[in-house]
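Please review this one.

:::
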Amino acid sequence: MPHQQRIYDVAFEIDPETGVFAYREVIVTMMRQSGKTVLILPVELDRCLMWHERQRVIYTAQTGSDAREKLLTDQVPVIEASPMGSLVRQVYRAKGEESIRFKNGSSIELAASSKDAGHGFTVDVGVLDECWADEDDRREQAILPAMITRPWAQVWVTSTQGTDESTYLNRKTELGRAAALADKGSGIAYFEWSVPEDADIENPEVWWEYMPALGWTIQPIAVAHALQTMEEMEWRRAFGNQRTRGMFERIIPDTQWAAVQSPIVEVPQAPGVVFGLDVHPERA
């Protein structure tokens, strides 16, 4: 898809001063089902098969079971059905040993989502997929130290936006947006496809303008159906790539909340202290 080529063109730029990749970190945030798997797999295969020395790629997802599912169910069949399948020495499927080993010694491996997962080995490419579910930095803390001695190393952070509780991805989003505005030409390469919050999400023209996979992996009729049947805030997150509020904060619809707001603050005339309480919707 065209947006993937745009990412590659920037992500693999060479810094003329250092002679290595200008961007050591690549952050990509876009709608669900917009091609993140087929974006990452060529990056992994290029590193494993086109480099002059053995390379180690580490793939992680929100949980170990999710990472295992994506590697063995999504990536392995694509590789095995392609001409590159003949370059695979073995696919390990045993729990805790999941990996793709190539005949040249390179590998795509899984790592646990823990702070010490990367201890004891070096990493050339680290993929942190679906980071919206991360509430801390433990995956990054495991990967980055293992890459420190590799001058050509890259970390790829990919995800659809999450909620206010997605602390890691929210931090990465702010860092990426700042890097894009600064436009230093090195460090962090940031890519975001999202529908503006004030756009009319019921207008198909908005979908065509902001959804990069529309007409490729996603069809308008499916988007329309999802909008009709899903809660608005979840549609905005999944198909608008917008950060939403936490689950319990969505009990009151935005339209009802806005209808009772007032820019005027009145001080009570009665003496004494007035308290306002924010109670959990389930009174927990």
Summary: DSSP finds nine helices and eight strands in the chain. The radius of gyration is 22 Å.
